[in-house]
Write a structure and sequence with these properties.
This protein is mainly α and 61 residues long. It has helices at residues 19-43, 46-59.
Length: 61
């Protein structure tokens, strides 16, 4: 007669996934991000990207 820990999240879709799940999502997300940035840099010259970045940073202050 041991003590059973009743957890309402066990055996549901909300149960914490294993490390492989997070690895696949981190790798996939970063791959999509870098491919998107590569496409954006090819399409727009770098000074325009830098100008837009600086302008967006200064607007918040």
């Amino acid at each position: 007669m041991g003590i059973e820990n009743e957890n309402i999240i066990d055996d549901t879709a909300l149960e914490f996934p294993r490390a492989g799940f997070w690895a696949v999502h981190l790798i996939g997300g970063s791959l999509l991000f870098f491919l998107g940035m590569r496409y954006a840099v090819k399409r727009v010259p770098m000074p325009i990207i830098a100008y837009r970045l600086l302008r967006s940073l200064t607007r918040r202050w």
